[in-house]
Amino acid sequence: MGLKSIPPSSCFYTFQPLSPEDALEERLILDSTAWPETPLLPAPISLQQTSDPAHSTFTILPGRKGGEWHVGDQLQVMIQTSDFQGRPKKSGGDFLLARLHNRKLEAGVVGQVVDHLNGSYSAVFSLLWEGDAQVEVTLVHPGEAISVLNRLNREQPDRMYYKSLFRSGSLSETTHCSVCLRPTQQPLCNYTDLRTGEPWFCYKPKNLSCDARINHFRAGSKENFLNANDEKLFQRGVNLKVSIRASGPASVTVLPQVCKRHSGAALSAHECERILANQHPEFV
Q1: pTM above 0.70, yes or no
Q2: How far apart are the first and last CA of the chain?
Q3: For 201, left (φ over 0), alpha (ψ -120 to 50), or beta?
Q4: Which of 144, 171, 193, 271 could cross-link to 267 by cystine, CB 3.0-4.6 Å?
Q5: For residues 96 and 243, is the Cβ–Cβ distance under 8 A?
Q6: If phi over 0 gives left and psi between -120 and 50 gives alpha, with beta otherwise, what is residue 29?
Q7: Which helix or strand (DSSP H or E) is residue 150 part of?
Q8: Which pLDDT tens digit goes with each residue over 203-235?
Q9: DSSP state at residue 181
């Protein structure tokens, strides 16, 4: 059955009811990606009161074994954000990335970042290799910028736009597509997923059917969707994807994994590797 064009409208779709299993999966995904509440923005925004990576720091916390770390241990890092006047932040919501890596070994792992909602954050890394492990913490967006992005998602969901190419024989046309198209006199092609109810629409080509669609691509974004005040929060080299410095050492040396019998007697590295590979229950 071919796709049908439908009269123009604005965001007329409704989602299909989810099964109990799909509803649970959706809830788990939403909970795992939920963002902490971001600070309310004064009008106008004062850049001086927002998170500044140049005044923020991170600190590697001491290990449980007297400053030693072994493969299999976890490395903990505390991050304290401050504003442009050097004052510690009192709210959370910043978008931080924490990474542990060794360029020589081409090894790396991403840290799990926890927002304590008071301007401080912690990051935890699993230590997976021997040798040097360098910590990097990056401020991707301050919490205030996240507030702006949330507002834009509500007010301008179509600021990023997409297109599809329709072709039949030697005739081809390109039209705009989105989850929600603004109403015009032009009919729409409905490509909503029948199983999930996920919406997707394109304006119907003037001389081709909806079935003639052959591809899909991002076409760009609207210009000037940020006002001059908002733009302060998205400055490369200032508060957009900028590294945060360490207040002390930024790296640790990871020692070989320690393997012991339940009795506490240590094993050689060779014995440890052999036994752990076989997952022998006598050893930890």
Answers
A1: yes
A2: 61
A3: beta
A4: 271
A5: no
A6: alpha
A7: helix 143-155
A8: 999 999 999 999 999 998 888 888 888 999 999
A9: P
